Each structure stands twice: as C-alpha cells, then as structure tokens.
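Allow me, if you will, to draw on your knowledge of protein folds for a short while. Thank you for your consideration; the sequence and its tokens are set out here:
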Amino acid sequence: GKPGFFTGSQPFYEVVPETTLLKPYSGELHNDRVYHGGNATLFQELTALLGDEILYVGDHIYTDIIRSKG
C-alpha cells in the first residue's frame, strides 16, 4: 500500500475474523481488531499520533525499517 498509504485517501477496512472478508470501516480504531488499507492522514486523526510516532511496516520489513532510519 506504500506510497498510497502516505499520499492517498483510501478508507480502512476491518478484517472479518476467520474469513477472507473485508468490510468498510469508519469510526475509532480498536486494539483487538485487524484493519486493512487506510491512509496516514486518517490514521493520525483517529489515533492522535503524529509522523515520527508511527512505524509503517509493509511486506518488506527489512527495507521499511532501513528507509525509516535514513
């Protein structure tokens, strides 16, 4: 989802447990649920966290961490 997570406006989807379904989600995020998609601006609004307080990890964890240190 990178760079779209940082530049886009896609919504969050909630992963429906024990299925392969995603359902559109709005509202506050919950620690006991799994979400897919979304965007940085909305994430910051929903969590009150800002830029350097957020670690984005995609499907290439090594590259994501190295880039965040640069």
User: Anything to note?
Assistant: The radius of gyration is 13 Å. The first strand starts at residue 12 and ends at 15. The beta strands are 12-15, 22-25, 35-37. The chain has three helices and three strands.
